[in-house]
Amino acid sequence: MQAQTRPLRIGIAGLGAVGKKLAETLDAGMDGLVLSAVAVRDTAKAQATLGHLKQMPVLTDIAGLAELCDVVVECAPGALLPAIARPVLEQGKTVVVLSSGALLTNMDLIEVAKAHGGTISVPTGALLGLDAVCAAAEGEIQSVRMVTRKPVKGLLGAKYLVDNNIQIEGITEPVQIFKGSPREAAVGFAANLNVAVALSLAGIGPDRTTLEVWADPTVDKNTHNIEVVSDAALFSMQIQNIPTENPKTGRITAQSVIATLRKMRAPLRVGT
Ligand SMILES: NC(=O)C1=CN([C@@H]2O[C@H](COP(=O)(O)OP(=O)(O)OC[C@H]3O[C@@H](n4cnc5c(N)ncnc54)[C@H](OP(=O)(O)O)[C@@H]3O)[C@@H](O)[C@H]2O)C=CC1
Ligand SMILES: O=C([O-])CC(=O)C(=O)O
């Protein structure tokens, strides 16, 4: 059998907290992967951000990525998801989606992927244990409960808070600001709770999964607690995410994408 020799060409859509880390890691060298292109809206700003790379990728716009790449990582605002994903999927390629909340209002992308042989990959991102949740979903899951606690600055500006006139600046003790489903949270907390949607897609869906969100001035990390009850296993998980320069996004998010990409070309693949 022929060995795979051509490196997978990776594209990045969005050069924020996640995209920059991803670009630097790919540029430093990853087996079988090469950074080909980055979609930005301000080329001069991107040139300054990436000026220290050994090899400057092609700087393009969102529409330019599909042609230049085999795999595109979406790490942009969720509203851009269809514009980023559709052309990639129409070419039968892979899009790695971080704005997983936006998938719920763009489920037609799954049909596009199916029709053209493309793939939508949702990494574990800022969460943990989606391997166990996927495995449990092969049997019967009775319940999935998630409780998120974030420092105030990780929640400021969320649509849900604005729409409901909920003030969290200056609170001195934890306040529950939301109780509902990941489907509702994807609308009200588009940039804060993609993790809840990813969890729901791995398990029992965005309507049956339950979610509480707390604004918590006593924590300095984005903290997610998850409890799963299934016929195969009962499990509890917690992750405390150290924020990046974007207080809404944990450092582990970019590393989760890096691990996902590495696996695409690895001869040994560990984890579901
Ligand atoms: N699934 C998960 O576990 C997680 C998902 N996320 C999600 O991942 C995404 C990326 O997060 P993060 O890196 O922190 O976000 P940032 O806000 O730091 O970066 C987003 C980037 O997208 C860029 N952008 C905006 N519009 C365009 C456009 N038209 N063309 C090209 N680029 C554009 C912005 O550019 P500019 O600099 O010009 O404004 C910005 O650099 C977010 O949607 C976030 O909610 C985050 C954490 C965890
Ligand atoms: O889900 C998100 O978008 C971000 C998040 O909760 C985290 O980084 O902990």
In short:
The chain is α/β, with parallel strands linked by helices. The chain is built from 11 helices and 11 strands.
Largest sheet: 6 strands, parallel
Helix-strand sequence: EHEHEHEHEHEHEHEHHHEEEH
- Structural class by helix and strand composition: alpha/beta
Structure annotation, total helices: 11
The termini sit apart by 26 Å
The side-by-side strand order for the widest beta sheet comes to 3-2-1-4-5-6
Poorly predicted regions are: none
Net shape: globular
Mean pLDDT: 96
Which ions and ligands are bound to the chains?
NADPH dihydro-nicotinamide-adenine-dinucleotide phosphate, oxaloacetate ion
Spell out the key features of this protein.
alpha/beta, single chain, 272 residues, binds oxaloacetate ion, six-stranded parallel beta sheet, binds NADPH dihydro-nicotinamide-adenine-dinucleotide phosphate, five-stranded mixed beta sheet
Note down, in words, how this protein is organized.
The protein is of the alpha/beta class and 272 residues long. It has helices spanning 17-28, 43-49, 65-68, 81-90, 108-116, 130-137, 159-163, 182-188, 194-202, 205-208, 252-264, and strands spanning 8-13, 33-39, 58-60, 71-74, 94-97, 119-121, 141-150, 175-180, 210-215, 222-230, 234-241. Helix 1 (17-28) packs across helix 11 and helix 8 (182-188) packs antiparallel against helix 9 (194-202). The relative contact order is 0.16. The chain binds NADPH dihydro-nicotinamide-adenine-dinucleotide phosphate and oxaloacetate ion. Residues 126, 192-195, 222, 241, 248-250, 253 line the site of oxaloacetate ion. NAD(+) binds at residues 126, 194. It catalyses: L-aspartate + NADP(+) + H2O = oxaloacetate + NH4(+) + NADPH + H(+); L-aspartate + NAD(+) + H2O = oxaloacetate + NH4(+) + NADH + H(+). The active site is at residue 224. Pfam families: Asp_DH_C (PF01958), NAD_binding_3 (PF03447).
